[in-house]
Amino acid sequence: MAHHRGPRHDLMPLSEKRRLAKDRRQLHHDADVVIVGAGILGCALAVALGNQGRSVLLLERSLKEPDRIVGELLQPGGVAALEKLGLRDCLEEIDAVKVFGYDVIYFGEEVRISYPANALHDGGEIEGDEKSHTDEMRGTKRKRPEGRSFHHGRFIQRLRQKAMEKENVEVVEATATELVRSEYNGQIVGVEATVKGEKDCFFGGLTIIADGYASKFRKEFREDAPVVRSKFWGLELIDAKLPMPNHGHVILGDGAPVLLYQIGTHETRALVDVPDNVPSASIANGGVKGHLKNVVLPSLPAEVRPSFEAAIDRDRLRSMPNSWLPPTTNKQPGLVILGDAMNMRHPLTGGGMTVAFNDAVMFSELLSPTNVPMLDDTDLVLKQMRAFHWQRKGLSSVINILAQALYSLFAADDSQLKALQMGCFHYFKLGGNCIDGPVGLLAGIIRQPFVLFYHFFAVALYAMWIYIMTGSPLLIPVRMLSSVGVFAKACVVIFPYIFSELRT
């Protein structure tokens, strides 16, 4: 389908340009950019590009408040990106809870992992709150960085509200069905969609696909599919007594990890990782509900069990696949795939939204009108997307690799992984940089992959040391030989994810 972009009106007054752009969006469904998906990334991009004066069409299948069990914890690095986007107030009026770090509970023994104070990020420091600059000028100690946890749907609705308030952003309830290509060169020029049951088309100089983990467009442009080896099953606990309020809780035992974090004044989210084909969740053993009652419930801290058991009996069980999808470079003229449609990691570390908001910041900077005057300049856009692919890795590769590697350790299912899991917990117990480094990476504050590699292999060496020194002194030579297998397992865990980040 041929599409006429219309004349440029460089000498026209700004008010007239805006009126014409609005007419183009509303009457002709034509804009500078079409974004498919008004989720975390789609809304952030719509606001960021709208702030730059771009005309934006934002399409979303349903504008009702979503009801999901993930996307509920925003790390400090994500809060900082949200502030850069001018969207920090979206965390207000949704009963969000401050998060100061993690409580890791290993077979009943716990260690507090607080976000690091005065952590460096991009040569500056992450703020704990808006007063931190003033505090520093006064010579008082700066607050530690803070994350936020909340109901996903409430947060999404605040983001959508911000997009709707932008003069040059049009939010449309529409289901995108297929991409529209130019009949001259095959370039993507927009999307076909259904609006209230009727077919329609939406055109843009650039089309951005941000339709989430179950993207309907992804498979057209890449051969690999997301890898799923487990699911998170979610429960909502009411008035749960947590061992460490205002902290995320990671509970480690014989099985896969359990996460607990408050998402409102009275609500706490429990996410239970259930690997595929685990025998305790078989139909014969009562399915997932049987697994939750027989395996998970006894492993929880005593004060959490009453609210967890009540939630099992009350809640409808819901799950989300824990997906792994390495990033790839966008190469299709006229099209950019972003967010979970392009890159996913295990949600254990709560890094997805932090990556998304930082991607929105970087994307909008690289494609700003100064760098890319016209978004239908496909050669220039693709050049900037190659830069985007590599520049985002300071943060995204750290969070991607960390999430996958930590999950392998926390869901340990053999003796070598269990040795690494124990080594990881005892490494945290050393305190100091053995906490600040790993949690700085997790929080999206430290953006240096080599810091991740340093701590991961420090954990592996410490695990070897503990493995060698545990038990009878007579067995030390034998255990020294066996410990080589622990280090080899660490390499097997991390190197595939490092290699996946190095490809284009």
Automatic annotation (TrEMBL):
Against Gene3D superfamilies, the record matches this protein to:
FAD/NAD(P)-binding domain
- Any GO BP annotation: ergosterol biosynthetic process
Say what the protein does. Catalyzes the stereospecific oxidation of squalene to (S)-2,3-epoxysqualene, and is considered to be a rate-limiting enzyme in steroid biosynthesis.
Question: Keywords in UniProt for this one?
Answer: Endoplasmic reticulum, FAD, Flavoprotein, Lipid biosynthesis, Lipid metabolism, Membrane, Microsome, Oxidoreductase, Steroid biosynthesis, Steroid metabolism, Transmembrane, Transmembrane helix
Q: Where found in the cell?
A: Endoplasmic reticulum membrane; Microsome membrane
PANTHER family, per the entry: SQUALENE MONOOXYGENASE
Q: Which domain of life is it from?
A: Eukaryota
Chain segments annotated as transmembrane: 33-51, 450-468, 480-499
Q: Which residues form the Squalene epoxidase domain?
A: 205-480
Name the residue ranges with Basic and acidic residues bias. Answer: 129-139
Question: Which named protein is this?
Answer: Squalene monooxygenase
Q: Which cofactor does it need?
A: FAD
The EC number(s) attached to this protein equal 1.14.14.17
GO cellular component, as recorded: endoplasmic reticulum membrane
Query: Which pathway is this protein engaged in?
Result: Steroid metabolism; ergosterol biosynthesis
Q: Which residues form a coiled coil?
A: none
- Catalysed reaction equations from the record: squalene + reduced [NADPH--hemoprotein reductase] + O2 = (S)-2,3-epoxysqualene + oxidized [NADPH--hemoprotein reductase] + H2O + H(+)
So what family is this one in? Belongs to the squalene monooxygenase family.
Please name the GO terms that the record assigns under molecular function: flavin adenine dinucleotide binding; squalene monooxygenase activity
Q: How does it sit in the membrane?
A: Multi-pass membrane protein
Judged by the first EC level, this protein's enzyme class is oxidoreductase
- A Pfam family recorded for this sequence: SE
Q: Where is this region: Disordered?
A: 124-147
Give the lineage: Eukaryota, Fungi, Dikarya, Ascomycota, Pezizomycotina
